[in-house]
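To start, an entry.
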Amino acid sequence: MTDLKGVFLNASPNGPEDAFGLCIWLVTLAYQRRVEVQLRPLDLTHLQYVVVALSAWLNHTQGATSQRDIAAISGVQEAQVSLMVKALK
């Protein structure tokens, strides 16, 4: 079993603010908040926007697009993409 205390101490010896994963997490949260503010007037969630944007791009570049195509490119599970498509109809 991995010694988790050792992993954390070696990864960020000066504290959590030096941990790369935490930095990525904070940047991601800030990005999501800014996107959500911009999408609020459109009554879209970030995930709905991703599905719409990818659908438009894929339709433009390769023609007919499936939910499986959107899931593969976005990294979102097919079932979740399906729910988003239903919510957008």
